[in-house]
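INFO  loader      accepted 1 record
INFO  loader      residues=679
INFO  predictor   begin
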Amino acid sequence: MKVILLILLPLITFTQDVPIGYWKDYLSYNEPKEVTIANERVYCVASGGLFYYNTNDNSINRVSKVNGLSDNEVEKIKFNNYNNILVITYKNCNIDFLKDDVIINISDIKRKEITGKKKINNIDFENNLAYISCTFGVVVLNMTKNEVKDTYKIGDNAQYVEINQTEITEDLIYVATSEGLYSASKNNLFLSDYNQWEKETLFNNVLLQDASFSGITSFNNTVVAVLDKETDSVLIKHNTWENTLSLGFKRPKLSKSGESLVITDSNQIIIISTNLQQVKIETVHNAFNSASKLENEIWVADKNLGLLRYLDQEIQESITVNSPISNDIYSLEYYSNKLFMCHGGHINFSLNKLNNDGASVMKNYNWYNKDFYDLNRARDIVSVANFNGKEFYASWYNGISVMEDDEHIIKYGFQNTNGVLDTTFYSNNRIQISDIKFDNNNNMWGLNSQVERPLFVKKADDSWYSFGMNQDINGLYFDELIIDQENKKWGIIVNGGIFVYTDNNTISNFSDDSYKILNTNIGNGNLPSQNVLAISEDLDGEIWIGTDKGVAVFYYPELVFSGYNFDAQQILIQEGDYGQYLLSTEKINCITIDGANRKWIGTEAAGLYLLSKDGIEQIHHFTKTNSPLFSNKIVDITINNQNGEVFIGTDKGLISYRSDATKGEENQGTTYVFPNPVR
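INFO  predictor   done
INFO  writer      dumping tokens
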């Protein structure tokens, strides 16, 4: 059992810089799907994040792993009025009890090894007991002792049967399963024995005995169940189970409000009284769940509209949290006091994701979204570049869209670039841009996949040029691009090493151009692997490479075209009595340089490393176990060099860490000395 003090920070505190060494979450809180009422707080799960609305002061407060939760990706929540405990379950089947702002972690189900799918479907209470409906049975938790009291396996011969919901009445425990409805005496002391459970058989249609039931509840001594089918699925038990209500609902959710039943469908909510009279709410758009405390008040988790409060069937409030549109991250960039989070990407480069979320942009800690329609129908956004007030969004499908003052001004494609932004060899409408960067002369460079001339540039005068590398374009994909201090272009060839290109600062004159493709051969790169995943230039001009077999460094990148030895070197570190190459067993997803020339290295499965400027000393190694990190898979990293905030994109969402390194500005302006005079 783990007890953690939970400090609930209101949303407004996230608008301030946190102290050095502290973390901050930037999870998405869109698409609400779960809601429960806990006294003056209304808790809501949205996009896997948890927040609550305080009805006393109208504040919105985010709760995450950063400020106390044991895990991330919240799935289910429910408040037990008997003991004032909020039960929180996670996607990985971890469980937290939250009482008086203290977290008690119950990890038994998470740690339980079973064959097949393991998931928590529902939470129900009987006094101080929590009944957790799982894919393998019912787990009963004693909320006083904070421990597992019992486990019920309902299936014949104690086989696993998926439990979707439980309901405890005055005498019985009902269980809705994937293979029918079961019940047993609440006072039976041997419910862990499957023989003590009886399958319900009193149906007008005998086929329903073995049907899948998605939910069950009771109100005013009436038991109601939901069939897991398309429509007309609500059954009420009288002497037999009858389809008394023909609602046309699709797999609705059941909840109680005093002596009434609340049935939530995606597009309407029906409140049913004890005499089966119906009151409808038809202004919801994509409702997932609802909860009620007062007879005439209902809170609804609506995917489209947010957290809604209805009073006497009329909407009173719509509550949303300012946050990114999505937790899906492909890349991060920080320009001009703005953080750009790109949500697009591809599937192993060969297939489009067809993601329409565009990019989430944070300015002054407020979030704005630039989606498919804002960007003139550009999808799968993978990179952003910023210059002179204009934002350039690179698409793995539609070329480059340009925004200025939040207005779309142009989309660059085949026609308006004289064919420089060429379409892929297999399609006449797909332009797969992987990255774009501006050089010091205001020229925008980028990479285009599966074309004859993949490296391209838009000069400051709006003229366009492209450059070839004499390779078979079938399956020729590119990833990241950097421009070094000598204006050479370095780019990742997917599973093909890296290329280096120089135009000798004469873009329109191709005769003096040179390029090299670097691989694992000695004398031609000496990369640890052909599978290069990250590339970055440090403050000393050294080029750091991340591969699926660790890190390598080009210490003398200026020699690439000289004929002298320029090969990359792996960093030898001491590990106990032996030496080994730095992170040689890790897949490196990203490398970012901070203001002190230290290296932030994100891995596929080992979390986040902060290394000294030479890479020899490990300053930090953050994982989901020893830090608030949401995941050990780090997708991308970018840094606000003005305050040292390191933005860390994981496969579970965005988080930041306030580091102690900032980057000095070339122009310091007026310098003040304090105290004055100096003695």
